[in-house]
Write a structure and sequence with these properties.
419 residues; alpha+beta; 6-stranded mixed β-sheet; 9 helices; 14% helix; globular; disordered N terminus
Length: 419
C-alpha cells in the first residue's frame, strides 16, 4: 500500500488522506456515543513515499496526560468559554506563569525519499521552549535538535540516528538522560534483500513515547514500498534499553492498552475490534498494536486493526473512543473550546492552552502563534509568531508552571541552546 496516498495527518502533515479512508474513519466515529466523538479530519501537505508518515497524525482528536514532574507543576486549567469572539486585551507576557516545551517533527516532502541515504531526507526533530522572559515578553528562550523531554525530575534527550548496514538503510531512535548522554543503539541486518527500516516519533511525553516502526523495500523502478508497519508505545526507559534494532517483540519492551486502560478497554463496545479481526474473534488486548497521535486540541489513541502477518503493511487503523489519562499525556485540556478557537481564528489547525490559563499556542498555516487568554476568550493579536518548516508537525507539548519555569529555562538552555 502506498501510505503517501492512503494517509494524511492533519493538522500536521501532507496529502495522502483519501476520501475513502476519511469516510471509513468518520463512519466509525458516527457509531460511537456522542460523548466519544471527535472532530473531523483535515488534510495538509505531502509525505513522500515514506511510511514514516504512516500513521503520523492520521487523525486529530481525543486526549492524553503527563508524568511525575509535569503532574507536580501543572495547575488546573481554565474553565470552558462559550464566547467565540477574540478579545483585544492589554497583557504583560512577563506575568505569564507557564512555559511550553514544544517538540516538532519535520517530515520528508515529495521527492525527498529518492536517492541513497546521503541524499534522502528523513524525519528530523527539534525542541523549542517558549517562556516569559523578564523585560523581553514571551519568546523562544531555547531551541535545539532532537527532542528534550522531562522525565521524573530530570530531562532526557531523544535523537534520530541514521546510517547504513550492508545493503540496508535505517533511522533508529536513541534515548537517555540529557546530562549523562545515551548509549547509541545498533542496527542488525536480519532480512533478505535490502530494506529501509525507520522508527518515527508520533508522540513524546514525560514518560511515554509512541512510535511507528516501518520496513520498506525498493522496487526495480526505485520506488519505495511498505513491507510492514508496526505501532508501539514504550516507556522512555524501555526505549533506552532496547539496544539492537529491529527490537524483538517482547511484552516487556512496550506498553499495551491493557497496561493503560485495564479491563475497561477490553469491552467490545469500547474498542469495536472484533468485527475487524479476520476470524471475527476478540483479540487479546495485550496483543493489540496502538499508538498516540495528535488531534485538534488533544491527543488520540490510534489502534491498528488485527490481521495476518502477510497483510502487515495493509492493515487499517481506527480511533479508539478512549480518553488518554494524564499519566500518559499530561496537561491536555483546552481553556477555550476548540470550536470557539476555530471560529475566532479562521485557519487554525491545532491549539494548546496553558495549565494556568494565561496563554494559548495555536498552529495556523506554517506558524505557531502565541495568544493571550482573558475573560474566557482568546486575544486578537499574537504575542509571538514562530515559523514552522514545511511538513513540520507537533509531537510533544509539555508544560512547566510557576517555580518550575526558571528551572526549565536554565535546563533547556543548557541542553539545547539559547537563540
Amino acid at each position: 500500500m502506498d501510505w503517501r496516498k492512503e494517509l494524511s495527518s492533519p493538522p500536521l502533515t501532507k496529502n495522502g488522506f483519501t476520501d475513502e479512508l476519511r469516510e471509513k474513519i468518520e463512519s466509525r466515529l458516527d457509531e460511537l456515543p456522542a460523548r466519544s466523538r471527535v472532530p473531523a479530519l483535515m488534510s495538509a501537505g505531502a509525505y513522500a513515499a515514506v511510511v514514516l508518515t504512516v500513521l503520523f497524525f492520521l487523525v486529530q482528536w481525543l486526549r492524553p496526560e503527563a508524568g511525575q514532574q509535569a503532574e507536580t507543576m501543572s495547575a488546573a486549567s481554565g474553565s470552558n468559554a462559550t464566547n467565540a469572539q477574540t478579545r483585544e486585551t492589554v497583557v504583560d507576557p512577563t506575568s505569564f506563569r507557564s512555559a511550553l516545551l514544544v517538540g516538532l517533527r519535520s517530515d520528508p516532502l515529495d521527492g525527498d525519499m529518492e536517492g541513497g541515504p546521503e541524499q534522502r531526507h528523513l524525519p528530523e526533530y527539534r525542541t523549542l521552549l517558549i517562556a516569559p522572559d523578564s523585560g523581553r515578553g514571551i519568546r523562544v528562550v531555547a531551541e535545539g535538535s532532537g527532542l528534550l523531554v522531562p522525565y521524573g525530575q530530570v530531562f532526557w534527550k531523544i535523537d534520530a540516528l541514521s546510517g547504513a548496514s550492508g545493503d540496508d538503510e535505517y533511522q533508529i531512535l536513541a534515548a537517555g538522560p540529557a546530562e549523562e548522554g545515551y548509549k547509541a543503539p545498533t542496527y542488525r541486518d536480519s532480512t533478505e534483500g535490502p530494506v529501509i527500516w525507520t522508527e518515527t516519533v508520533l508522540f513524546a511525553g514525560n514518560r511515554f513515547v509512541s512510535l511507528a516502526e516501518t520496513e520498506q523495500t525498493r522496487g526495480d523502478d526505485g520506488r519505495l514500498f511498505e513491507r510492514s508497519v508496526s505501532l508501539k508505545v514504550r516507556e522512555l526507559k524501555q526505549l533506552a534499553a532496547l539496544g539492537a534494532r529491529p527490537a524483538l517483540p517482547k511484552p516487556e519492551t512496550h506498553v499495551s492498552l491493557n497496561d493503560i486502560f485495564g479491563e475497561r478497554a477490553a469491552l467490545p463496545e469500547e474498542l469495536q475490534l472484533a468485527r475487524d479481526a479476520e476470524d471475527g474473534s476478540q483479540p487479546r488486548l495485550s496483543e493489540v498494536e496502538w499508538g498516540i497521535v495528535r488531534g485538534q486540541g488533544r491527543w488520540a489513541a490510534l489502534v491498528q486493526v488485527p490481521g495476518p502477518v502477510s497483510e502487515a503493511a495493509h492493515r487499517s487503523q481506527t480511533v479508539a473512543p478512549l480518553t488518554l489519562p494524564a499519566s500518559v499525556v499530561s496537561h491536555d485540556t483546552l481553556a477555550v473550546p476548540w470550536e470557539d478557537i476555530a471560529r475566532a481564528l479562521p485557519g487554525a489547525l491545532d491549539a494548546l492552552t496553558s495549565p494556568t490559563g494565561d496563554f494559548a499556542a495555536v498552529m495556523i498555516d506554517q506558524r505557531l502563534e502565541i495568544y493571550p487568554l482573558a475573560d474566557g476568550g482568546i486575544g486578537e493579536t499574537p504575542l509571538l509568531e514562530v515559523e514552522l518548516e514545511p511538513g513540520e508537525t507537533l509531537v510533544m507539548a509539555q508544560w512547566a508552571t510557576d517555580d518550575y519555569v526558571p528551572i526549565w529555562i536554565k535546563s533547556a538552555q543548557k541542553y539545547l541552546q539559547e537563540p
